Amino acid sequence: MGERKSRLLGSGDIDVSFEFFPPKNEKMEEQLWQAVRRLEPLGPRFVSVTYGAGGSTRERTHATVARIVRETALPPAAHLTCVQATRSEVNDVIRDYWAAGVRHIVALRGDPVSGVGTKYEPHPGGYASTADLVRGILEIAPFEVSVGGYPEGHPESPSLDADIEHLKGKVDAGARRVITQFFFDNAHFLRFVERARAKGIWCPIVPGIVPIHNFKQVAGFAARCGTTMPAWLARRFDGLEQDPATNHLVAAAVAAEQVMDLVDQGIRQFHFYTLNRADLVYAICHLLGLRPVTAGNRLAATA
Ligand code: FAD
Q: What pLDDT is recorded for position 56?
């Protein structure tokens, strides 16, 4: 019988990235930095910081990314949306990132101002689409640009085919990586990758993984972004609302199962939505074969 590929992993086989959100207050800042410090030794390819709807976290995102540049060896990626902003406002943000030493932007359109599910209206003087934003970023400086992808289709798209066609426009504009919305049924992701390849999208398509620290909260996110919450998944967390210790163990088991199954399907890159918490992500990375890079084992690896 063949060995499961996930059992054979060694450090170096897997590439991970971690996503954080900018903190709103000192307590959240402390929690964020504990998570960053805990995950840093795992040597992620990059860590990204989200941008609040309509640029509401512009300063906080910039401050968080700038601190990552100053105080860590982690390559940062700054998320950027073009909602509710003129081209020149967005261009200022892009130039500020370059000046701060940031070389990677996750380019996004952002959600409609009037809420998910309503019609998106570009700012009259702004970037008209994500592809347009990708081109604008690359005209300013040679950033690495990543974009979002939707394994189950974006809530606004008429079909998955139309969505993938739209994605191709973002990649053709210069994006070098697709990071996906989170999902729980791996079949959606694998089908999405197959269909994207068939349309000629050849850059890395990295699955976005969210560990379920809090089922109710993640179910709320899922409902807003069109991710299916399978009934079997809800059953696994059923009755654990008042039992955080068991909830935590179940969350680790669920995320590990999802990621290991993707490894068995040949996937080697993962983007983790950390929600600024390190514990579950750290454990999953450990299962994936990642080990902290210390001065000692860095030297051993290069000897
Ligand atoms: P796009 O892919 O450009 O558009 C979304 C969909 O709308 C398309 O897939 C397509 O189906 C349809 N569409 C759009 N324009 C057209 C058109 N002209 N013709 C036909 N169809 C069209 N949001 C934030 O506010 N801040 C963040 O930091 C953030 N980070 C994210 C990170 C990732 C990895 C992902 C996947 C999403 C993130 N989001 C973030 C959410 C994102 O802003 C929303 O999902 C938004 O609604 C779509 O942004 P997009 O760049 O993916 O849009």
A: 79
